[in-house]
Amino acid sequence: MQRFGTLSFGHYGPLGGGHQLSAGDSMLQAIDLAQGMDELGVDGVYFRVHHFARQQSSPMPLLAAIAAKTSRIEVGTGVIDMRYENPLYLAEEAASVDLISGGRLALGVSRGSPETVVRGYEAFGYTGSADPRGADLAREHFDLFLRAIDGEGLAERDASSPFGGGTGLQRIEPHSPGLRSRVWWGAGNRDSAEWAGRVGVNLMSSTLLTSADGRPFDILQAEQIDAFRAAWRAAGHPGEPRVSVSRSIFPLMTAEDHLYFGGRQDGDQIGIIDGMRSTFGKTYAAEPDVLIEQLQNDAAIASADTLMLTIPSQLGVAFNLRVVEAFATHVAPALGWTGRVPAGSR
Fold it and tell me: Using one digit for the tens of pLDDT, what is the confidence trace for 139-151?
């Protein structure tokens, strides 16, 4: 594990006891949390994207705000649902955020997870999918998005335009060199991971896999990562791709930690998603020395270069900063992380 960051679902709404977290609260707290993690020396802050739900749904304004208020932390998504996206507009937005951040965008995209509505992307105007889950639409959009960020000319110039005109094809603007190397595909199975390797984008391995053969989640995920890297090499892409995995990990340091997560130590779960029998990764919650032993035996964490910690954003900035600092101080170095929490940072 070379890097670690947080993955937030950005939930908002009723918190119980008459308390309410608004959409505005959720976004402003996300900015504050990212600033705190930047000061701590954490490597990245990433956001899940869902539509028709009380979660983050339009991440680019949030990422731009975080990029403008931080100096070193990677900002990204895990993942944007390409079924809902205008590829060229997303390319413009992504390039803008990448330029604001100085090349710190880690843009995770994919076909996306099931939403709270039926074929919600059609309400956004994206119709014509022959796949009941819209996978063909997502990959069609992704292909055009990649062409756009690669700088390919996509629209005929108007020679009579009073704003420059010319002939030939015009690329979208702004253009951010190197953005292509910071694009990730979120894969929930081996086939999609191999496809990402052939295309030549980084891999975000999901918190679940649409496979359930009785073996532990981390073993299935490590095999998926191996297949991705083999496909990358076979396609002849230069260099080494990045790979991230997500986990729910809570160092139990205080009575409050035990209250919230002390009973959350569980095993892998088997369930049905998108009509497919799937394996969901377990929650890790223990004292730091126990966590270290458990995580060192997680085959996928050992294989990936980046670990994303799913965080309970509803519990607020101070709580989550303390969880992240505890992981950075007491657990991450034993997993290979060479970053350092500044003395007296909290």
Answer: 999 999 999 999 9
Tell me the CA distances in angstroms from 185 to 31, 226, 236, 318, one per residue in order.
24, 15, 18, 31
Backbone angles phi, psi at 183, to 5 degrees: -100, 140
Q: Tokens 């500044």 sit at which residue? A: 342
Tokens of 20: 């309410």
Global confidence as pTM: 0.92
The amino acid at 220 = L
Q: Give pLDDT tens digits for 300-335.
A: 999 999 999 999 988 999 999 999 999 999 999 999
Q: What is the DSSP letter of 163?
A: T
CA distances 171 to 73, 278, 344, Å, are 29, 41, 48
Q: What are phi and psi of 27, to 5 degrees?
A: -70, -40
CB 117 within 8 A of CB 84: no
The H or E element containing residue 78 is: strand 74-81
Measured between alpha carbons, how far is residue 80 from residues 126, 130, 202, 338 in Å? 15, 21, 14, 30
Instruction: Give the Cα-Cα-Cα angle 304, 64, 338 (nearest 5 degrees).
Output: 30
Any residues with CB less than 8 A from the CB of 78 and at least 6 apart, and which?
7, 46, 47, 48, 108, 184, 186, 204, 244, 246, 308
What does the block give as tokens for 23? 């959409």
